[in-house]
């Protein structure tokens, strides 16, 4: 950050001990790039390159965690400097206040969560200002911290269990760590008349809207798992409080922030006013409503208004007496030449008695007319 000084002293003519003193005034010079480049690498204990799931955060510019982009197994971050500030003094002052937080997770390795100040990263060994910063984090082999961990609450607090979440995590819980929620279900089975309250919380690093959304998502996730394990959905009430109820006021450490990313589970025999689970009750009411209008009913309405057909189009009914003339329709001899003009009506099978017992268009009789030649 200062102008280099070069001084040459000619000591060839000095043969006796002598003390020389000279003061140099160093001129302040700030040469900052348009953007500062960060190269973040992760290695194991043997120096082999790893590519974990990593996030970074630059406070106060970026209060939320951002996914770290990788290129050739190296995390790349660009910080605008002179492209953002016109005065180098202002840019340097902003960098001195900035903090870089990096978090990484990989199966089979312990988690990495470290915070560095930009004031120490941007300066070299001799005080020079860097335009490229290389960082390397070592991940040790071991069991990683779970995304969601369910533990029992302390006695006397009224809480049954607490689910602690990792950063920005709201919907990941492996089967090994789900035993805590199964224990909650076992406790509820002994008191099935009580309601289950799930209150979601977040730390204070994100925005107010983001924290509220994240806390609600965490509570909804715990409810979903409790329903899968046997508790009816209408008995579970979820709420999200964001970062308004911090369990730990110390958010400068990873352990303190983790205590605030939680979902607390309570049992209550009475439902408080305004705690109706509307989304749970609305679903069952819609199902019977869909089944009410039956298709068969619509068809029956269409069939009822039937207009009577004219007499010549009405088909014979099935209730025909034994002496009905329709039974004599089987012989196919009325058109034979021998019957034409014979004049013998008594031998014709289609002859009708003189009493006219079957009359056309008479109510209660088949509407049939027989012509005899």
Short description:
The chain has 373 residues and is an alpha+beta fold.
Q: What percent strand?
A: 15-25%
Determine the structural class based on helices, strands and strand pairing: alpha+beta
The number of E-state strands comes to: 14
Helical content (DSSP H or I, runs of 4+) = 10-25%
Please tell me what the overall shape is. Answer: elongated
Our count of helices gives 7
Uncertain stretches of 5 or more adjacent residues: 278-302, 309-315, 317-321, 323-346, 356-360
Strand-and-helix sequence, N→C? Answer: EEEEEEHEEHEEEHEHEHEHH
How would you characterize the overall build of this protein?
- There is one protein chain.
- It is built from 7 helices and 14 strands.
- It is α+β, with helices and mostly antiparallel strands.
- Strands 1, 2, 5, 6 and 9 form a 5-stranded mixed β-sheet that branches.
- The longest helix is centred in the middle third of the chain and has 21 residues, at 208-228.
- It is elongated.
- Mean pLDDT is 74; it is low at 278-302, 309-315, 317-321, 323-346 and 356-360.
Features:
five-stranded mixed β-sheet, 14 strands, 373 residues, alpha+beta, 7 helices, elongated
How does the SSE layout of this entry go?
Elements: E1 35-43, E2 49-50, E3 53-59, E4 66-67, E5 70-71, E6 74-80, H1 88-97, E7 99-105, E8 112-117, H2 118-122, E9 132-138, E10 148-152, E11 159-165, H3 179-190, E12 195-200, H4 208-228, E13 236-240, H5 254-260, E14 262-268, H6 278-291, H7 295-303
Parallel strand pairs: 1-9, 12-13
Antiparallel strand pairs: 1-2, 1-6, 3-4, 3-7, 5-6, 7-8, 10-11, 11-14, 12-14
